[in-house]
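Appendix B. Worked example

We walk through a single record from start to finish. Start with the input: the chain for Succinate dehydrogenase hydrophobic membrane anchor subunit, Brachybacterium huguangmaarense, length 152.
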Amino acid sequence: MTSASPTTTIPEPTGRYRRTGQRGVNAEMLSWLFMRGSGLLLVILVFGHLFVNLWLGEGVKRIDFAFVAGKWSSPFWQVWDLLMLWLGLLHGGNGVRTIINDYAHGPRLRLVLKGLLYLAVIITVVLGTLVIFTFDPCPSGGDPSLLPSICR
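Next comes the structure step. The output line below is what the pipeline stores for this chain.
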């Protein structure tokens, strides 16, 4: 008795490739697009930050507490630094998330590492945002000997 062997067909090399997976927008594609957009915006923000802080005026010699206090008295620079903080942390966190997905073997380890990553990003974003918007170089009721010279 002979059995018929199954035949395998190989598609024509000039034939059109057909996708078998999900089509359209998904989380990983949005993540990929965010990385490109945030990376471009971060380059502009960081080089603008470096240009204003280091290139203009006296350079690094003029950066001190009074410089930061004067800069953060302007809502423009508060928003600029806030965008750098948020985009930098979200961009970096998304990159580390991708590394965890690639190299952490096992769902439990992956879950723990991502949980720690998300917690660290959230805490840092919240604390950084609070520092930017609640920064007061001359708090009322502060000890005058501890206040900077710009407050006298």
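Two observations about the output. Helices lie at 27-55, 65-71, 75-103, 107-134. The mean pLDDT is 87.
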